[in-house]
């Protein structure tokens, strides 16, 4: 049996998505900038994809700027705004539990004269809106907070932060890579100025993402050239990728409620199984029902996460110890440290991330194997 | 009606074999290459195999190949990355007037950031004069970026000679080889370039993926930061199917490069000679022999290029008036202006770029249709 429980790292592309991509790869190979029919057909597909992606987060289709993925979107949002607003101020507010594509860019900006406040989070991984408010000063030009944490699944209060940012006239960027298709992201309602999205986390292809920009945002490109994507992101459009992203977005939007209910049901089943069958386990991050429906992070005391990961792999179960991006880094997850984990709880963490293809059988099988493996590893360790 | 696609410099159809190679990585092997378990490791292995294929095709070592989202990103990375890494050493960059906009607009940005850029002129064929480069280098020069082959007029620059001049002064040399790869034999070690940009979708691979060759030891900053992918130099989950497709496309195109070049050159010369024979007031843009094997670029007097493209399109022929990237703009081509065209003549240009799937019948058809269209357009032309 194979059970893939690493849907936060990446997801399998849906068949409907592949079918549409194949059409583009095989037949509609035109360059959207070309004036002839092949180009025109590509341009039409591009427009349709833009509308499809918009439906995931609301707002206007013209606000969607296609990129090569979530990381590029985050880089563009931060560097782009920092450079365009540097005359207005040099202060940026973010949190300690952001994705490396935010944190490393912020570090780069700090080296270049910007000041960054990294807000602390509580034990559940939550950023407090009042902390955002008190961090704002007259040099603040940007707030960047993720919608859902990729390691522990905390849903951040982006609506409340959006309201604060809008009141103070500060741009608000949200990394919604993990949130899109799982929890509500609505640029109008939550007052978001910029949103980063990635296709491969919602059963679309790797290598494509988007940055949504509200009308007010002025941004400096990081990739210059032919002037595609309204001059904000140059380079021939990744047509099959973009079209696939569009289909994946529409499907994700259409099934949002159904999917999030299903995933939450599976997540509860998984946690109930783990907590009743296995001793000395610790739920990391928010309470099960408060977190994103697809992410469960658990520490198994006395068992190293990486060892357990490979033990599960032997039985066909694929999980992760943290985020895929930092899976090779030593020293433990910055997110788990930020919520106060230490010692063997920090080292014994496993992230289970669920997807639309998972079933109750997957969960029961996983609990069963987990129990055996954890028992074995703990005995092995004590010997 | 079967369409005749003669815009292969804008983009190419994906080769069936490339597509076949990519498909498993959308479904069966969909893992994230950074994941520790076997699913991820299989994807990682596929990336490393693709890297070896690209490296082999260029004569590089595989750890000198970095995957990007395409030619534009590679160009941006090379220029900005080197400029910022060497800013303490100097602030002067040398390029040419006929580069792709991915290079030109990045240079304009760098000028705003305090760098100085020299844009070398070219001769009537679009060739950079080595002595111009020699004269332009100062003790502040940190980078020379000159394209391998021009995307509009197909001129192939004397890269090897230009690299030698740059290296005599210890200056890095970058070349945008997006149009040259797969059309000209390239050996990075023999050429001794320091950085080279390439793109998959110009060589029958997928859109959205490219690579930057960075010679070992070259100092460069990252353009996109985050996770530790691409040996910490280019962050972001790897576009696994795209990368696999690029590897396959590179292998396929270099395997039969000689016969590919011969075929395209034959069709090109037939098309050029036919046009010049059949159509009066036509002139070839670019160099007659130092040009890409698939590139035909002709200017017609008393013709508006855009109406020519639309008329050809109605006749089932996909062509371009310049590069695809700028085809939406009303500005005449900066390349044609640089080789000395007037604005009027520059507006009357036609680019036909031949690819591996074109046949002699395609060329015959163009030679039948094009003279008629030109004649008709000239009879109603408003430009005097």
UniProtKB/TrEMBL annotation, chain A:
<comment type="similarity">
    <text>Belongs to the class-V pyridoxal-phosphate-dependent aminotransferase family. NifS/IscS subfamily.</text>
</comment>
<dbReference type="InterPro" id="IPR015424">
    <property type="entry name" value="PyrdxlP-dep_Trfase"/>
</dbReference>
<keyword id="KW-0408">Iron</keyword>
<dbReference type="GO" id="GO:0051536">
    <property type="term" value="F:iron-sulfur cluster binding"/>
</dbReference>
<keyword id="KW-0808">Transferase</keyword>
<dbReference type="InterPro" id="IPR020578">
    <property type="entry name" value="Aminotrans_V_PyrdxlP_BS"/>
</dbReference>
<keyword id="KW-0411">Iron-sulfur</keyword>
<dbReference type="InterPro" id="IPR015421">
    <property type="entry name" value="PyrdxlP-dep_Trfase_major"/>
</dbReference>
<keyword id="KW-0479">Metal-binding</keyword>
<dbReference type="Pfam" id="PF00266">
    <property type="entry name" value="Aminotran_5"/>
</dbReference>
<protein>
    <recommendedName>
        <fullName>cysteine desulfurase</fullName>
        <ecNumber>2.8.1.7</ecNumber>
    </recommendedName>
</protein>
<keyword id="KW-0663">Pyridoxal phosphate</keyword>
<dbReference type="InterPro" id="IPR015422">
    <property type="entry name" value="PyrdxlP-dep_Trfase_small"/>
</dbReference>
<dbReference type="GO" id="GO:0031071">
    <property type="term" value="F:cysteine desulfurase activity"/>
</dbReference>
<dbReference type="InterPro" id="IPR016454">
    <property type="entry name" value="Cysteine_dSase"/>
</dbReference>
<dbReference type="InterPro" id="IPR000192">
    <property type="entry name" value="Aminotrans_V_dom"/>
</dbReference>
<feature type="domain" description="Aminotransferase class V">
    <location>
        <begin position="3"/>
        <end position="365"/>
    </location>
</feature>
<dbReference type="GO" id="GO:0046872">
    <property type="term" value="F:metal ion binding"/>
</dbReference>
Automatic annotation (TrEMBL), chain B:
<keyword id="KW-0408">Iron</keyword>
<keyword id="KW-0663">Pyridoxal phosphate</keyword>
<dbReference type="InterPro" id="IPR000192">
    <property type="entry name" value="Aminotrans_V_dom"/>
</dbReference>
<dbReference type="Pfam" id="PF00266">
    <property type="entry name" value="Aminotran_5"/>
</dbReference>
<feature type="modified residue" description="N6-(pyridoxal phosphate)lysine">
    <location>
        <position position="202"/>
    </location>
</feature>
<comment type="function">
    <text>Master enzyme that delivers sulfur to a number of partners involved in Fe-S cluster assembly, tRNA modification or cofactor biosynthesis. Catalyzes the removal of elemental sulfur atoms from cysteine to produce alanine. Functions as a sulfur delivery protein for Fe-S cluster synthesis onto IscU, an Fe-S scaffold assembly protein, as well as other S acceptor proteins.</text>
</comment>
<dbReference type="InterPro" id="IPR010240">
    <property type="entry name" value="Cys_deSase_IscS"/>
</dbReference>
<keyword id="KW-0001">2Fe-2S</keyword>
<dbReference type="GO" id="GO:0030170">
    <property type="term" value="F:pyridoxal phosphate binding"/>
</dbReference>
<feature type="binding site">
    <location>
        <position position="179"/>
    </location>
    <ligand>
        <name>pyridoxal 5'-phosphate</name>
    </ligand>
</feature>
<dbReference type="GO" id="GO:0031071">
    <property type="term" value="F:cysteine desulfurase activity"/>
</dbReference>
<dbReference type="InterPro" id="IPR015424">
    <property type="entry name" value="PyrdxlP-dep_Trfase"/>
</dbReference>
<feature type="active site" description="Cysteine persulfide intermediate">
    <location>
        <position position="325"/>
    </location>
</feature>
<feature type="domain" description="Aminotransferase class V">
    <location>
        <begin position="4"/>
        <end position="366"/>
    </location>
</feature>
<protein>
    <recommendedName>
        <fullName>Cysteine desulfurase IscS</fullName>
        <ecNumber>2.8.1.7</ecNumber>
    </recommendedName>
</protein>
<dbReference type="InterPro" id="IPR017772">
    <property type="entry name" value="Cys_deSase_NifS_bac/arc"/>
</dbReference>
<comment type="similarity">
    <text>Belongs to the class-V pyridoxal-phosphate-dependent aminotransferase family. NifS/IscS subfamily.</text>
</comment>
<dbReference type="GO" id="GO:0051537">
    <property type="term" value="F:2 iron, 2 sulfur cluster binding"/>
</dbReference>
<feature type="binding site">
    <location>
        <begin position="199"/>
        <end position="201"/>
    </location>
    <ligand>
        <name>pyridoxal 5'-phosphate</name>
    </ligand>
</feature>
<keyword id="KW-0411">Iron-sulfur</keyword>
<dbReference type="GO" id="GO:0044571">
    <property type="term" value="P:[2Fe-2S] cluster assembly"/>
</dbReference>
<dbReference type="InterPro" id="IPR020578">
    <property type="entry name" value="Aminotrans_V_PyrdxlP_BS"/>
</dbReference>
């Amino acid at each position: 049996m194979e059970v893939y429980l690493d849907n936060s790292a990446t997801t399998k592309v849906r068949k409907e998505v592949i079918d549409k991509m194949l059409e583009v790869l095989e037949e509609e190979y035109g360059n959207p900038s070309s004036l002839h029919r092949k180009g025109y057909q590509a341009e039409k597909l591009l427009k349709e994809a833009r509308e499809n992606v918009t439906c995931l987060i609301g707002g206007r289709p013209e606000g969607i700027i296609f990129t090569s993925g979530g990381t590029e979107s985050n880089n563009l949002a931060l560097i782009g705004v920092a450079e365009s607003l540097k005359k207005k101020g040099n202060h940026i507010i973010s949190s300690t539990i952001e994705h490396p594509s935010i944190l490393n860019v912020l570090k780069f900006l700090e080296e270049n004269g910007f000041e960054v406040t990294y807000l602390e989070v509580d034990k559940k991984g939550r950023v407090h809106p009042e902390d955002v408010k008190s961090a704002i000063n007259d040099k603040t030009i940007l707030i960047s907070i993720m919608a859902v944490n990729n390691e522990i699944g905390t849903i951040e209060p982006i609506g409340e932060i959006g309201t604060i940012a809008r009141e103070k006239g500060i741009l608000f960027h949200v990394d919604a890579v993990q949130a899109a298709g799982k929890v509500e992201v609505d640029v109008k309602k939550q007052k978001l100025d910029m949103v980063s999205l990635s296709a491969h986390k919602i059963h679309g292809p790797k290598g494509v993402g988007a940055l949504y920009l509200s009308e007010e945002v002025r941004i400096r490109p990081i990739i210059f050239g032919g002037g595609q994507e309204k001059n904000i992101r140059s380079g021939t459009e990744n047509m099959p990728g973009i079209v696939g992203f569009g289909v994946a977005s529409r499907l994700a939007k259409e099934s949002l409620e159904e999917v999030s209910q299903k995933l939450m049901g599976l997540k509860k089943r998984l946690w109930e199984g783990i907590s009743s069958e296995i001793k000395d386990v610790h739920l990391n991050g928010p309470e099960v029902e408060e977190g994103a429906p697809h992410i469960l992070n658990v520490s198994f005391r006395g068992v190293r996460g990486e060892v357990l990961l490979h033990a599960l792999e032997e039985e066909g179960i694929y999980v992760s110890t943290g985020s895929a991006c930092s899976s090779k880094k030593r020293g433990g997850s910055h997110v788990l440290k930020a919520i106060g984990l230490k010692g063997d709880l920090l080292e014994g963490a496993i992230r289970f991330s669920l997807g639309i293809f998972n079933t109750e059988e997957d969960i029961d099988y996983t609990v069963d194997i987990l129990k055996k493996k954890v028992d074995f590893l703990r005995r092995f360790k004590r010997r | 009606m079967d369409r005749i696609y003669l815009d292969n410099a804008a983009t190419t159809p994906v080769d069936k074999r490339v597509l076949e190679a990519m498909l498993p990585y959308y479904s069966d092997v969909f893992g994230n290459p950074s994941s520790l378990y076997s699913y991820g490791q299989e994807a990682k292995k596929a990336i490393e195999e693709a890297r070896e294929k690209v490296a082999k095709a260029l004569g590089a070592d595989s750890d000198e190949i970095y995957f990007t989202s395409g030619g534009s990103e590679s160009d941006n990375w090379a220029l900005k990355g080197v400029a910022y890494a060497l800013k303490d050493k100097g602030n002067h960059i040398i390029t040419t007037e006929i580069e792709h906009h991915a290079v030109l607009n990045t240079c304009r940005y760098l000028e705003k950031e305090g760098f100085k850029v020299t844009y070398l002129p070219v001769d009537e064929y679009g060739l950079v004069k080595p002595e111009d480069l020699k004269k332009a280098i100062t003790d502040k020069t940190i980078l020379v970026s000159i394209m391998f082959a021009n995307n509009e007029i197909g001129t192939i620059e004397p890269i090897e000679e230009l690299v030698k001049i740059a290296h005599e002064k210890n200056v890095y040399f970058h070349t945008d080889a997006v149009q040259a790869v797969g059309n000209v034999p390239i050996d990075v070690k023999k050429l001794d370039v320091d950085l080279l940009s390439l793109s998959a979708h110009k060589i029958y691979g997928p859109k959205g993926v490219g690579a930057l060759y960075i010679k070992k030891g070259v100092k460069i900053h990252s353009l996109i930061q985050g996770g530790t992918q691409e040996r910490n130099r280019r962050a972001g989950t790897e576009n696994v199917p795209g990368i696999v497709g690029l590897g396959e496309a590179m292998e396929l195109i270099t395997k039969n490069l000689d016969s590919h070049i011969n075929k395209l050159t034959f069709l090109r010369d037939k098309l050029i000679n036919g046009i010049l024979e059949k159509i009066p007031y036509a002139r070839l843009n670019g160099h007659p022999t130092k040009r890409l094997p698939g590139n035909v670029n002709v200017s017609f007097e008393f013709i508006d290029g855009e109406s020519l493209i639309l008329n050809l399109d109605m006749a089932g022929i996909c062509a371009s008036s310049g590069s695809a990237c700028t085809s939406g703009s009303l500005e005449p081509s900066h390349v044609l202006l640089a080789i000395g065209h007037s604005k009027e003549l520059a507006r009357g240009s036609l680019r036909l770029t031949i690819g591996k799937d074109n046949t002699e019948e395609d060329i015959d058809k163009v030679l039948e249709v094009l003279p008629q269209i030109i004649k008709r357009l000239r009879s109603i032309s408003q430009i005097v």
